[in-house]
């Protein structure tokens, strides 16, 4: 695979800018190459974010025949784990391959945004080479590939957005009701990755209704298609419910699907919301400025792009803020509508004031992109290449000592160690925070002492601890009485072995 990359970039370099963006397939190839440049140095570290580790470990468990929400448990819907299991079944359990597939997924999402932008241009606009749609795709790749916890780490938002934009493209391109059923099906699949997709679905539905009203279509026309879209949306949910009902786990499905999310709502001071929004929008300047500018100067592109971006971005922002938990990756949901409209700043038909024209000149744009890529690669090298990969060192140390049948418990240390050592979690609660974070323990009704006793009854040979393991529990006392420290890794990890 890596030997093919230099040849790929050589072929891309031989094409002129006009040739590169004159064919949709070449645009997809360009987006893929751009995403690879921005993300490649992040491929090799063991852990970018613990959520990614959870998807990988639980997906591997599903391939081994375990049942989600029974044998392995997390708070998210089954979709992201099923998707990662498909990746692993086809391409293997390599972390590098998962990140490569994520990069291609992002490029494909950017490409469909490009197609959507092209489709929403007024009929009078040139259809072949318009820099606005191309810019929308480039901006999406940029936004999701610069900041570690705003997109570099593979997370649910990166994956469900593809389903959303694919459904949007179908809605604006096709008329037959069957296509609307397919669009709803895609949105339902996204919903099974993360429930916030419901807000995307509402936004797309409202945009479709607005468009039909503007075109003076009959209410029966748009209502029929909305009904078919709703049926398609519900189908993945119903199939998942039926699956768990057959296993006698209907109550479990209902709890994790409809009740658990409400237990994670916070009500921080209103100032925290403003600080989070300021952080999100300021770190993406000047894209934020282009988005707002194009929203005000909408006549160039017609009303469709601004209306869609306002509905989609507004509803996405609401669900980002409602839980009151300010994680950077939540904001990824807003990036698609932002980049879609902000890209129209580069539409050739748009007249901008003299003080803004320098932003659109190739003499500025291309050197700026090159500098940005180089700076980004420098930061990623410092973050992911130069730093010691402690989880990989810990795993290598353990693999030299593990015997067939030995049980490992990673405690409050990185649970990616299970994958790196080809072992399985002795507890269904794979994600370390489910067992060690008070909020998760309360939300899921976990009896920590009971679960720790179940783990210790299996007599794990090795137990890992990270920094700040709580001391008021049965694990700490058992480690003191029945285990010995055999290795420490700069106070990042401690390896205990049963006496």
Write up what this structure looks like.
The chain is built from 24 helices and 4 strands. The chain is mainly alpha-helical and 499 residues long. The chain has 2 domains: 361 residues, no CATH class; 109 residues, no CATH class. Helix 10 packs antiparallel against helix 11. The mean pLDDT is 92.
Labels describing this entry:
mainly alpha; 499 residues; 4% strand
Task: Give the H and E element order.
Answer: HHHHHHHHHHHHHHHHHHHEHHHHEHEE
> Roughly how much helix do the residues carry, as a percent range?
55-70%
Number of folding domains? 2
The share of residues in extended strands comes to under 5%
Q: Largest sheet, if any?
A: 4 strands, mixed
Q: In whole angstroms, how far apart are the ends?
A: 45 Å
Low-confidence stretches: none
Shape: globular
Topology:
Elements: H1 4-14, H2 17-20, H3 24-39, H4 50-63, H5 79-91, H6 95-120, H7 131-143, H8 156-173, H9 177-191, H10 197-214, H11 219-246, H12 250-259, H13 270-283, H14 287-296, H15 304-321, H16 332-342, H17 354-357, H18 362-385, H19 390-399, E1 408-409, H20 417-420, H21 432-436, H22 438-444, H23 448-457, E2 462-465, H24 474-482, E3 483-489, E4 493-498
Parallel strand pairs: 1-2
Antiparallel strand pairs: 2-4, 3-4
Helix pairs in contact: 3-6, 3-7, 4-5, 6-7, 6-8, 7-16, 8-9, 8-10, 9-10, 9-11, 10-11, 10-15, 11-12, 14-16, 15-16
């Amino acid at each position: 695979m890596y030997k093919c990359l230099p040849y790929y970039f050589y072929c891309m370099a031989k094409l002129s800018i006009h040739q590169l963006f004159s064919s949709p397939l070449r645009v997809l190839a360009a987006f893929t190459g751009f995403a690879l440049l921005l993300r490649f140095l992040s491929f090799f570290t063991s852990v970018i974010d613990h959520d990614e580790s959870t998807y990988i470990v639980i997906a591997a468990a599903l391939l081994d025949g375990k049942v989600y929400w029974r044998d392995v448990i997390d708070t998210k819907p089954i979709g992201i784990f099923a998707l990662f299991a498909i990746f692993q079944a086809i391409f293997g359990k390599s972390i590098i391959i998962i990140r490569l597939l994520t990069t291609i997924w992002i490029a494909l999402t950017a490409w469909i945004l490009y197609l959507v932008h092209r489709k929403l241009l007024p009929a009078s606009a040139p259809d072949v080479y318009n820099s606005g749609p191309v810019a929308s795709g480039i901006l999406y790749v940029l936004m999701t590939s610069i900041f570690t916890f705003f997109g570099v780490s593979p997370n649910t938002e990166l994956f469900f957005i593809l389903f959303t934009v694919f459904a949007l493209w179908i809605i604006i391109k096709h008329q037959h009701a069957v296509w609307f059923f397919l669009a709803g099906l895609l949105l339902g699949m996204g919903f099974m990755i993360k429930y916030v997709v419901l807000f995307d679905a509402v936004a797309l539905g409202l945009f479709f209704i607005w468009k039909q009203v503007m075109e003076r279509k009959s209410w029966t026309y748009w209502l029929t298609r909305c009904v078919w879209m709703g049926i398609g949306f519900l189908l993945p949910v119903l199939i998942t419910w039926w699956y768990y009902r057959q296993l006698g786990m209907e109550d479990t499905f209902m709890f994790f699907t409809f009740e658990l999310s409400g237990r994670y709502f916070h009500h921080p001071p209103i100032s925290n919301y403003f600080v989070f929004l300021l952080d999100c929008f300021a770190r993406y300047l000047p894209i934020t400025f282009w988005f707002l500018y194009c929203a005000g100067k909408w006549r160039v592109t017609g009303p469709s792009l601004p209306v869609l971006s306002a509905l989609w971005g507004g509803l996405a922002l609401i669900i980002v803020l409602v839980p009151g938990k300010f994680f950077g990756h939540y904001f990824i949901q807003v990036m698609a509508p932002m980049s879609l409209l902000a890209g129209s700043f580069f539409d050739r038909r748009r007249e901008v004031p003299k003080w803004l024209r320098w932003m659109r000149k190739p003499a500025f744009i291309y050197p700026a992109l090159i500098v940005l890529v180089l700076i980004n690669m420098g930061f990623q090298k410092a973050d992911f290449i130069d730093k010691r990969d402690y989880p990989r060192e810990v795993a290598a140390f353990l693999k030299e000592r593990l015997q067939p049948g030995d049980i490992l418990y990673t405690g409050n240390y990185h649970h990616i160690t299970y994958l790196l050592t080809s072992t399985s979690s002795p507890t269904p609660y794979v994600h370390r925070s489910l067992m060690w974070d008070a909020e998760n323990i309360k939300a899921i009704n976990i009896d920590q002492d009971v679960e720790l006793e179940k783990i210790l009854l299996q007599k794990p040979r090795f137990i890992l601890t990270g920094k700040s393991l709580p001391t008021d529990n049965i694990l700490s006392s058992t480690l003191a009485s029945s285990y010995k420290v055999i290795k420490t890794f700069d106070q990042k990890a401690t390896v205990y072995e049963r006496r």
